[in-house]
Amino acid sequence: MKRLAIMLVACSTVALAQSPETGKAELKDAAGKSVGMVTLTETPHGVLIHAMLMGVPAGTHAFHVHATGKCEAPFTTAGGHFNPDSKQHGMSNDMGMHAGDMPNVQVPADGNLTFDVLDPHVTLKAGANSLFKDGGTAIVLHGGADDYKSDPAGNAGPRIACGVVTR
Ligand code: ZN
What we know:
The radius of gyration is 18 Å and the shape is globular. It has a single domain (20-164), classed as Immunoglobulin-like (Sandwich). Strand 1 and strand 2 (34-43) form a beta hairpin. The chain has one helix spanning 2-17; strands spanning 22-29, 34-43, 46-53, 59-61, 63-66, 105-107, 113-119, 138-142, 159-164. It has a 7-stranded antiparallel β-sheet, with no helix packed on it. Strands 4-6 form a two-stranded antiparallel ribbon. By secondary structure, the chain is mainly beta. The structure holds zinc ion. Zinc ion binds next to loops.
């Protein structure tokens, strides 16, 4: 029994030492107003993204990771979708999908939405698919819906908010 207790203590110490990698991004609109907070947590199956949107236009919006960590309106500075595997765009595309592609989000009339989404194709650890790669990455909210197949950007309209992924 005593031996078991010592093992449990040892295990919990290891768990603390290996707390998951995390990141965050503050989404701002083209006027520089904060419209969302995103937190990112490494899991064994990808990066879990928790987003709180505040005061964004109601409706269906594309939500992607873009390839450059630079957000200057109108946010073309963030580059295309994060695509380290050189795929085409979209989960409905036989030649897809980009690592940064994620499902649309449905913002209600009051403009506020909290949601979680898993991106299984990226990591917060080192490597080609790291959100902390050289040059960084950015989270982008688009004005329109992603059709999940039109290359390279899902015909999702303008970029209405952007946030650089940081530690
Ligand atoms: Zn894409």
